[in-house]
Structure formats: structure tokens, C-alpha cells
């Protein structure tokens, strides 16, 4: 099993790169987000990999971070989500935003990815909701889930308020979670939004 590669980027394509490791070129499939993060031709990069083997094919899927690879493994564990769809989701949605979408049951956000219809998006949200809550560290999933559970509608309303002010869902969710830790579950919506704004603006 190849878990990680370090070498020079020999070439890049729309959905792949070739990384030269001591003279051996590895063809690695990757999301648009990963390709952008890794760099350009002749840059040196570390690629975290997942190997997929089927009857007719064997391929390496690459990621810029372990977090993205962990999300890919979670997504492809859902029936109907293959490697191509998993990469499409990760190309369209950042891990932190994906954690927020799944934690809050927002299937519409997941359905923004190419190849993901409403039924599949709902299945992804339903099957991964508990897993995201249990996996601390993956896109802030556990913290976001805890925020929503502890403060109920106030947390969701505070996240919406920050989102309306231009903050990304992941940024808003993490800021509200930090504010909630300081203020406690009985915090008013006004206090939660004010402190979350300070934390998000750091």
C-alpha cells in the first residue's frame, strides 16, 4: 500500500498529476482543490495517497492533506459514491464546510458537487452524520456537531448571521463553536454573534 509520495511534479492535467519520485513517475488522480494546493510543474510536493483496486483497474488517488484523504475514505464508504464522485465533492466543498453541511443536515450543499443528485446527497448526510460527530479533527466535524447540539437554534442562527456577513460556513462554524465554549450553552444569540465575530476576525 502506498500511503504517501514525495517528489517533483513532472506534469499536471485537469484531474491528475505525475509525480517523479527518484526517477519513477507515479500517475495520481486528484481533485481540483488538491492540484491547486500542491503547486505547479517542477515544484516538490508531498502527496497523501489512497489506492483503489477493481477487477479492471488500479489507481492512485492523491490529496494535499491527510484531512482530505480521510474525508475521501468516509465519502467512498457510502453506497453510490465512487472515487470520481468523491473527488467531485472534495473539489466543490472544503472539508470544514463539508463537516458543517453534514453536521447540520444540509444535503443541498452536498448536492452542489457534480454527479451528486438530491437522493445521493441525502444518503451521504444521513450515513455520515454520526461518523463526522465521532471523528474529532476531520474538518472540525466534532466541534461543529457539538456546537449545534449544545446551543440548538442559537448556534445555527449565529452561524447564519456570520455567513450573511461574508464568512465561509467553516469559518462561521468554528468561530461560533469557540464562542460557545467561552459563553456556555445558555448564551443569548446576541452575545454569541458578538463573540463569534471577534473570533472569526482574528
UniProtKB/TrEMBL annotation:
Q: Where in the cell is it found?
A: Cytoplasm
The DNA helicase Holliday junction RuvA type domain is annotated at: 1-60
Family annotation (CDD domains): UBA_RuvA_C
* Region (Domain III), start-end ranges: 151-202
Which ranges carry the Holliday junction DNA helicase RuvA C-terminal domain?
154-200
Q: Which UniProt keywords apply?
A: ATP-binding, Cytoplasm, DNA damage, DNA recombination, DNA repair, DNA-binding, Helicase, Hydrolase, Nucleotide-binding
- What Gene3D superfamilies does this protein map onto? 5' to 3' exonuclease, C-terminal subdomain (1.10.150.20), DNA helicase RuvA subunit, C-terminal domain (1.10.8.10), Nucleic acid-binding proteins (2.40.50.140)
- Gene Ontology CC: cytoplasm; Holliday junction helicase complex; Holliday junction resolvase complex
Residues annotated as region Domain I? 1-64
InterPro entries per record: DNA_helicase_Holl-junc_RuvA_I, NA-bd_OB-fold, RuvA, RuvA_2-like, RuvA_C, RuvA_C_sf
What's the chief localization of this chain? Answer: cytoplasm
Task: Select a single GO molecular function from the record's annotations and give it.
Answer: four-way junction DNA binding
Q: Which HAMAP family match?
A: DNA_HJ_migration_RuvA
Describe the task this protein carries out: The RuvA-RuvB-RuvC complex processes Holliday junction (HJ) DNA during genetic recombination and DNA repair, while the RuvA-RuvB complex plays an important role in the rescue of blocked DNA replication forks via replication fork reversal (RFR). RuvA specifically binds to HJ cruciform DNA, conferring on it an open structure. The RuvB hexamer acts as an ATP-dependent pump, pulling dsDNA into and through the RuvAB complex. HJ branch migration allows RuvC to scan DNA until it finds its consensus sequence, where it cleaves and resolves the cruciform DNA.
Q: Could you say which protein family the record assigns here? A: Belongs to the RuvA family.
Q: Domain comment, in the record's words?
A: Has three domains with a flexible linker between the domains II and III and assumes an 'L' shape. Domain III is highly mobile and contacts RuvB.
Protein's recorded name:
Holliday junction branch migration complex subunit RuvA
Gene this protein is translated from = ruvA
Amino acid at each position: 500500500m502506498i500511503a504517501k509520495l514525495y517528489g517533483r511534479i513532472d506534469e499536471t492535467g485537469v484531474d491528475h498529476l505525475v509525480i517523479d519520485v527518484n526517477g519513477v513517475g507515479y500517475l495520481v488522480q486528484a481533485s481540483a482543490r488538491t492540484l491547486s494546493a500542491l503547486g505547479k510543474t517542477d515544484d516538490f510536493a508531498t502527496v497523501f495517497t489512497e489506492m483503489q483496486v477493481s477487477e479492471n483497474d488500479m489507481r492512485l488517488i492523491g490529496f494535499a492533506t491527510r484531512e482530505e484523504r480521510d474525508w475521501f475514505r468516509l465519502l467512498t464508504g457510502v453506497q453510490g459514491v465512487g472515487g470520481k464522485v468523491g473527488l467531485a465533492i472534495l473539489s466543490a466543498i472544503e472539508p470544514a464546510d463539508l463537516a458543517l453541511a453534514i453536521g447540520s443536515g444540509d444535503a443541498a450543499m452536498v448536492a452542489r458537487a457534480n454527479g451528486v443528485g438530491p437522493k445521493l446527497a441525502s444518503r451521504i448526510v444521513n450515513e455520515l452524520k454520526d461518523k463526522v460527530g465521532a471523528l474529532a479533527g476531520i474538518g472540525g466535524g466534532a466541534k461543529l456537531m457539538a456546537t449545534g447540539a449544545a446551543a440548538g437554534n442559537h448556534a445555527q442562527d449565529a452561524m447564519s448571521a456570520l455567513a450573511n456577513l461574508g464568512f465561509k460556513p467553516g469559518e462561521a462554524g468554528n468561530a461560533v463553536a469557540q464562542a460557545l465554549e467561552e459563553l456556555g450553552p445558555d448564551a443569548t444569540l446576541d452575545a454569541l454573534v458578538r463573540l463569534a465575530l471577534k473570533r472569526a476576525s482574528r
